[in-house]
Design a protein that fits this description.
By secondary structure, the chain is mostly beta strands. The protein is built from one helix and eleven strands. 13% of the residues lie in helices and 43% in strands.
Length: 141
């Protein structure tokens, strides 16, 4: 076996080790969540930031009975329901009759600019929200 072939094989087998060293392991249940201005809603950034270019992920809990009022974002969002049931509606006014139910394991994909609200009506809800920054929350009037 030639030296160049040995170096090539070492490089191939060493690459996964270098990649694995950069992987983060996060346990959502053990994350310190921060209270938000919305009663019953707490969250923490998992990765990235909403104020800079690039993807971000946020871990959020909505306590039973809490409502995230109508709002929109300039970016599309994916909201994975990790536990509980999330009620989501589209529009500038809360209308429980127009809500869809997203149970644990389902994903709500909300297009950019679409006004929507979320509610926890049957117990606490944990959501993993993924979007692209820079972004903001635009409250409906």
């Amino acid at each position: 076996m030639t030296l160049s072939r040995i170096v090539f094989l070492i490089a191939i087998f060493a690459a996964p080790v270098a990649i694995a060293a950069d992987i983060k392991k996060i346990t959502l249940d053990q994350m310190q969540l921060n209270e938000t201005p919305l009663e019953g809603v707490s969250s923490a950034m998992i990765n990235g930031t909403m104020t800079e270019d690039g993807a971000f992920g946020a871990n959020a809990i909505m306590k039973d009975g809490s409502v995230f009022p109508p709002h929109s974002h300039p970016d599309a969002r994916m909201s994975l329901v990790v536990s509980g049931k999330m009620y989501l509606g589209v529009g500038d006014q809360i209308d429980p009759g127009a809500e869809q139910v997203f149970e644990a394991g389902t994903v709500a994909i909300t297009p950019a600019g679409v006004s929507h609200w979320m509610a926890a009506r049957d117990g606490d809800v944990r959501i993993l929200e993924i979007g692209t920054g820079p972004t903001e929350t635009r409250w409906s009037k």
